[in-house]
Amino acid sequence: MDTLTIANRTFRSRLMVGTGKFSSNAAMVAAMEGSGCEIVTVALRRVDVDNPHDSILTHIDREKYLLLPNTSGARDAEEAVRLARLARAAGCEPWVKLEVTPDPFYLLPDPIETLKAAEILVKDGFVVLPYINADPVLAKRLQEAGTATVMPLGAPIGTNKGVRTRDSIAIIIEQAIVPVVVDAGLGAPSHAAEAMEMGADAVLVNTALAVARDPGAMGQAFRKGVEAGREAYLAGLGRQQERAEASSPLTGFLHN
Amino acid sequence: MNFQQTLDSYNLAEVEARIAAKRSADVEAALAAAHLGIDDFMALLSPAAAAYIEPMAQRAHQLTVQRFGKTILMYAPLYLSNECTNGCRYCGFNAHNKVPRRTLTLDETEAEARVLHDRGFRHLLLVTGEAPRAADTDYLTAAVARLRPLFSSISIEVYPMEESGYRQVIDAGVDGLTIYQETYDRALYAEMHPFGKKRDFAFRLRAPEHAAAAGMRRIGVGALLGLGKFRVEAFCTGLHALHLARHCWRTHLTVSFPRMRPADGGFQPLNPVSDHDFVQLICALRLLLPDAGLVLSTRESAQLRDNLLPLGITQMSAGSCTSPGGYAEKDESGRQFVIDDDRTHTEVEAMLRSRGYDPVWKDWDSAFHA
Amino acid sequence: MQLTINGKPTETTAGSTIQNLLDQLRLDSRQVVVECNRAIVPRQRFGEEFLAEGDTLEIVHFVGGG
Question: Which residue of B29, B35, B310 is in closest CB contact with A250?
């Protein structure tokens, strides 16, 4: 059976789901159920002490889903490390989706601070899944630092534009020694399928599910997109043929 | 993860069977692939690919020209010592062989080097056997220090070292390492290396990773063709290069495919590799590794070298001697093996130019390394 | 005594533990993480850690995020 292994844990699903921006907890749960995901990301925020409400955790079945806390909101390595440690203290397994996004407009990740934080967190025993721009050399540096995956963005977060960083992601996939998870920007199941057809090991989707009219049905649609893309990749896609220009034979000497 | 773990995850008999099972449809898919997967590479090494040798050659040529242009990096080997404590059954330096043994002094080394320098070579490959008492790392370091002013790049093809040894020679001015595993088949390796330090398969296998960790700029791997089954050996060589490309990504890789030559001792190849097989192997490696340097030495005949040139070759030696003192003293009594292409460097240079290739004598200067 | 909780000055009874404070704020201790003066307080010590005048607390919990 085709499975995904990250840091010695095996998953059947190659679709990870983010839990932000949903109109209700019910919609979020429907999207998770529909998607068949086994990993869901969550964020840490200050409790509003004047107006406390249920934690999101009361709605997520921890038996069924691995909670992957992110470090969203961190603007530098120090803040990211602090958030990761807080998440671990909350009783989560020491997994963290590392995000360092000082740019408030496109929420693009800071490569230098991300690498710094990754080095600290790996040493501290975390399973680190860093969110990065699709930079192949940064991906290598992070893998060297011991991250469990790399998570290059397809397009800026929330833009639904698809795999705009295609050529760079192809290089990352070609050279990777850890699973490659395409994260951010995937707005349609066809985008997810495209990433999987390219050989990505998994994708992470949030906004596209959260803003759908029917998040549960969209979760199912993404599940099918991911599965179709994966199956096509494994089956061996018919490749676009590049015809070599006609030239004189190069191996005629073997027949003389 | 080191390469030994990767290699150990394959059973070589299964690899052979998987390669043998590939069909023409697999070869066609591999020929169309932008990047080869493991199964694509197997397909290109399979008997089924023999019928596709021309399209493979065209693709190999196209990839090489696209990546390297029509250039050939010229290098020359300099044998420092033929003293050796190993018993490699196929090698002319085998400790049991009755050949004149010598280790060049620093002055003799410089005399040899000056001949090569005067011929225009700036990329030098220093070769020794494995004889710690005659030619240890300190000896090598001293030779490199002496030759450094004459050459822009100095590589070594000696015994495997720990990371610290590679650091020492890199500090002295070495920027390249060539180390052939000879065979990736442990059982055959044990048989071929009955005594001597070289018996340690794993240490040799680890050497490129040690060198990369020490900061070596160029690393070359390969198998001695004629020992194991060429399809399996070529597969493992490709796997090794791929592993290094992914894990030691700061290092530039080269692959060589030395075919066994007549040597003192009279060892006969266990699995001779035909010219056709040889071409298939070179093309398959080029398609797997579009960015790797492919090295062709004077082991092959002049005619074959000329024909192999467009298939993906990026580095050639010329006018080589395989005995210590062979250049300045013209003494070849202590040679490792008999070369085949015995044209001079000027003749090879003229051949390259006549075929539209640019011989490159210098593409790097170790001064950048300071 | 006065504390700073999530950036806001807050009054609480002298001699309170962190658990007492969470109860006062009607927060489920299983669902929050507490930092006291930038050091994480392990959950099993909430009932033993007494607060002091001027302590700065961060109380965080999980919310939706991608």
Answer: B310
CATH code at B3-361: 3.20.20.70
Q: Which chains touch C (3 or more CB pairs under 8 A)?
A: A
C33:A22 CB<8 A: no
Beta strands at A39-46 and C56-64: parallel, antiparallel or unpaired: antiparallel
> Do chain B and chain C touch with ≥3 beta carbon pairs under 8 Å?
no
Task: Enumerate the domain spans of chain A.
Answer: 4-255
pTM across the whole model:
0.84
Q: What are the extents of the domains in chain B?
A: 3-361
- Which pLDDT tens digit goes with each residue over A5-62? 999 999 999 999 999 999 899 999 999 999 999 999 999 998 888 877 777 888 999 9
- CB of A154 closer than 8 Å to CB of A170: no
User: How many angstroms separate the CA atoms of B349 and A123, rounded?
Assistant: 54
Cβ atoms within 10 Å of B163's Cβ, excluding its own: 17
CA distances from B54 to A139, A148, A245, B33, B285 (A): 37, 42, 13, 17, 15
Name the fold adopted by A4-255: TIM Barrel (3.20.20)
The H or E element that residue A44 is part of is strand A39-46
CA distance A147 to chain B (A): 13
A197 to chain C, minimum CA–CA distance in Å?
23
Domains of chain C: 2-60 (3.10.20.30)
